[in-house]
Amino acid sequence: MLQLQFEFQIRFSITIPTLTMFLLKTWRQSAFGVYGYLNFTKPAFLEHSKNFKPEEMETQIPGKNCLVTGANSGIGYATAEGLAQRGATVYLVCRNKERGEAALSQIQTKTGNQNVHLEICDLSSVTDIRSLASRFSKKNVPLHVLVNFQSYCYIAEII
Ligand SMILES: NC(=O)c1ccc[n+]([C@@H]2O[C@H](COP(=O)([O-])OP(=O)(O)OC[C@H]3O[C@@H](n4cnc5c(N)ncnc54)[C@H](OP(=O)(O)O)[C@@H]3O)[C@@H](O)[C@H]2O)c1
Asked: Which Pfam family, giving just one, matches this sequence (predicted)?
């Protein structure tokens, strides 16, 4: 009697470092996904907003030094104005002098806060960022808040 026998054999050869990297990457991606789902989706927003206390938005923060990039328009401008409204010392980081000065004067007039300053810096230039960091450190004041709307993460590393 003719007997046919097929045998399949699949062999995986994987080194310990490769397996470790694979597990680490899988873990990081899963953790990132879960964190994102729990914090940055609409249901997460609705859940978190239950703890939102509007009066906390009115907290005054005089003496706090805040640096806001992309501060002459959009959400950068709104953030800078909000911080100035709360009495903080605000440094507007803008690349264009005229637009920066217009935002500075508008914020000072609207909030009555004169502790608003303009720093000219093109955030696409590492040289400019280094120069800004150097100017800021010469002021010898602590930086309490860095709001990085328009920037490479590099600015956070330097300042
Ligand atoms: N608006 C939103 O709902 C929203 C939501 C999520 C994320 N974002 C992000 O938040 C950032 C700002 O958004 P936006 O809507 O406020 O934008 P926007 O109104 O266009 O404001 C961008 C600001 O960044 C400045 N800027 C751009 N390139 C710069 C550079 N190389 N150096 C210095 N300043 C520079 C611009 O200055 P100039 O006037 O000189 O161009 C402007 O003041 C963007 O990265 C955007 O992707 C926005």
From this structure: adh_short
The pLDDT assigned to 10 comes to: 74
* Residues 60/84, Cβ–Cβ less than 8 Å: no
Q: Which residues of the chain have pLDDT under 70?
A: 1-4, 151-159
Cα separation of 71 and 68, whole Å? 6
Q: Cβ of 102: how many Cβ atoms within 10 Å?
A: 14
Q: Which helix (H) or strand (E) holds 130?
A: helix 126-138
Fold of 58-158: Rossmann fold (3.40.50)
From CA 128, how far away is CA 134, in angstroms rounded?
A: 10
Q: Which of 92, 131, 150 has the most ligand 1 atoms within 8 A of CB, as the residue to mutate? A: 150
| Residue 72 contacts residue 99 (beta carbons within 8 Å) | yes
Give this prediction's pTM: 0.75
